[in-house]
Input
Amino acid sequence: MFSPETGARPLADGASSTASEIGEVLVSEQDLQRRVRELGQAISRDYEGRRLLLVGVLKGAVFFLSDLMRYIDIPVEVDFMAVASYGSATDSSGVVRILKDLDIAIEGRDVLIVEDIVDSGLTLQYLLRNLGSRNPASLEVCALLTKPERRKVELPTRYIGFEVPNQFVIGYGLDHGERYRNLPYVAVLQR
Ligand code: 5GP
Output
């Protein structure tokens, strides 16, 4: 709970028992909010007069997307996809399975994929191919984080929040075993 007297924000319940797993903070809450506002303003300018549809990739992008949407001041709709990537716990293989498809048909729509993090790029490559084959008017990517050192395929990512080093990160939607999504900042997972 937020304390109005001290302004202190204790760790959320989900994080408190293993707080030692939360390592160095890479992106603070203030920097996240400032950058998300800038991205929302840029998207509003770039898509003025068009029918923008944000496609959020579950679950990690939900937190970023809901903040981002509040900084977009043109008409905008939202839909979600859930995908599972085959591979080890830390490496995606590029073989992706759709767990939940879009509800909305995207033919002729201006589609912006909203992702939490681009790591190898293989998941995004699959999404770009899959959604691209549905004939949208345009298809672009907005990713909160990117790990350029890990990239296996180069992809056009029009909007990027922050570059992070080659470390496993948690918070602001990003999980470790489904935990830590509720942290208001991005930190390194300390193993
Ligand atoms: P890619 O296909 O680009 O290798 O993997 C993308 C997905 O892997 C992301 O959408 C995210 O779900 C997961 N991922 C990649 N790096 C990290 C990380 O550092 N932390 C967390 N929590 N998930 C990551």
